[in-house]
């Protein structure tokens, strides 16, 4: 047997075994134990059927491993992945998966959390938000850029929430004030999501939602009433101080443990994929 084939087979088996052992929850996840206290949520997650690598079931499992109580599957311009996820969590229990969509407009991306039908990308930002609300959902401005914020101010359109920027800085308070003054809206909540596509960043920063129960309805209601705080990867909190004081530390993983998991996870995946390519390449050579 070709030596390359044997080495590749070992790499594949090792990568899969090590990756699977890493995927096992290292401690019993506090999922759903005290849903009325606070729900740990990542509200910006991609599955396949869009440009995410994991299936809705894979995301359900990874969310459980990360101690998340809620994720929203927000595929680009389609709600099907989120709906499949919602069914999975209905059958298997927590973590709860809420269907959503990332509405990808030319200048800005808007997360539609808790909707049931796909929203057109031909609408204006203001019309997109109106449609999200008509479907009973919540609108969050994703990874905001200056141009997106200026556009919202020009359109007098205010989202319910806004993600903290992917850079280290934060959308400055004056920009948020200008958006809501222009749109005559109430406070805009701050969200910290992972925009998960692949590897293991899911839940590396997260939101704590103070909902009455762990149901889609209760989560949406809590978001509308701004009963939410966000914590980023540096452990910085955003949101109402009184909620921050109530936020249980058990719902927040230390960012460093997530970072270690990410690099180990990347290595095992790389090992397994190299194994797959090697097995096929050397098999062809043998034939
Ligand atoms: Zn986006
Ligand atoms: Zn995204």
Can you give a write-up of this model?
The protein has 287 residues and is α/β, with parallel strands linked by helices. Helices cover 43% and strands 17% of the residues. The protein has 9 helices and 10 strands. It has helices spanning 3-23, 56-65, 80-92, 125-134, 146-155, 173-183, 216-224, 241-246, 255-286; strands at 39-45, 70-76, 96-104, 109-113, 138-141, 161-163, 189-191, 206-209, 228-231, 237-238. Strands 7-6-5-4-3-2-1-8-9-10 form a 10-stranded mixed sheet. Helix 1 runs antiparallel to helix 9 (255-286) and helix 5 packs parallel to helix 6. The longest helix is centred in the last third of the chain and has 32 residues, at 255-286. It is elongated. Bound molecules: zinc ion (2 copies). One zinc ion binds at residues 44, 46, 102, 142, 195.
Name its key features:
ten-stranded mixed sheet, single chain, 9 helices, 287 residues, alpha/beta
- The tally of helices reads 9
Q: Distance N terminus to C terminus?
A: 11 Å
Q: Helix-strand pattern, N to C?
A: HEHEHEEHEHEHEEHEEHH
Main sheet specs: 10 strands, mixed
Q: What's a concise summary of this model?
A:
This protein is an alpha/beta fold and 287 residues long.
């Amino acid at each position: 047997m070709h030596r390359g084939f044997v080495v590749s087979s070992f790499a594949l088996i090792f990568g899969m075994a090590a990756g699977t052992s890493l995927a096992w929850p290292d401690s019993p996840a506090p999922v759903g134990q005290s849903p009325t206290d606070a729900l740990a949520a990542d509200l910006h997650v991609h599955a396949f059927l869009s440009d995410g690598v994991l299936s809705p079931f894979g995301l359900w499992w990874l969310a459980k491993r990360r101690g998340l109580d809620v994720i929203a599957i927000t595929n680009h311009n389609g709600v099907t992945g989120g709906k499949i996820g919602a069914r999975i969590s209905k059958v298997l229990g927590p973590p709860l998966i809420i269907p959503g969509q990332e509405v990808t407009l030319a200048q800005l991306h808007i997360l539609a959390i808790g909707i049931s039908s796909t929203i057109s990308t031909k609408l204006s930002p203001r019309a997109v938000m109106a449609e999200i609300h008509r479907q009973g959902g919540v609108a969050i401005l994703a990874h905001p850029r200056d141009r997106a914020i200026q556009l919202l101010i020009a359109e007098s359109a205010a989202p319910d929430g806004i993600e903290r920027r992917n850079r280290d800085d934060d959308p400055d308070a004056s920009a948020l004030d200008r958006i809501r003054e222009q749109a005559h809206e109430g406070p805009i909540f701050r969200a910290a999501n992972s925009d998960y596509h692949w590897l293991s960043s899911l839940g590396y920063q997260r939101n704590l939602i103070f909902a009455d129960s762990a149901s889609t309805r209760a989560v949406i209601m809590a978001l509308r009433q701004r009963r939410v705080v966000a914590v980023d990867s540096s452990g910085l909190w955003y949101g109402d101080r009184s909620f921050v004081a109530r936020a249980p530390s058990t719902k927040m993983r230390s960012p460093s443990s997530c970072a270690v998991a990410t690099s180990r996870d990347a290595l095992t995946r790389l090992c397994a994929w190299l194994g797959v390519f090697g097995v096929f390449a050397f098999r062809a050579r043998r034939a």
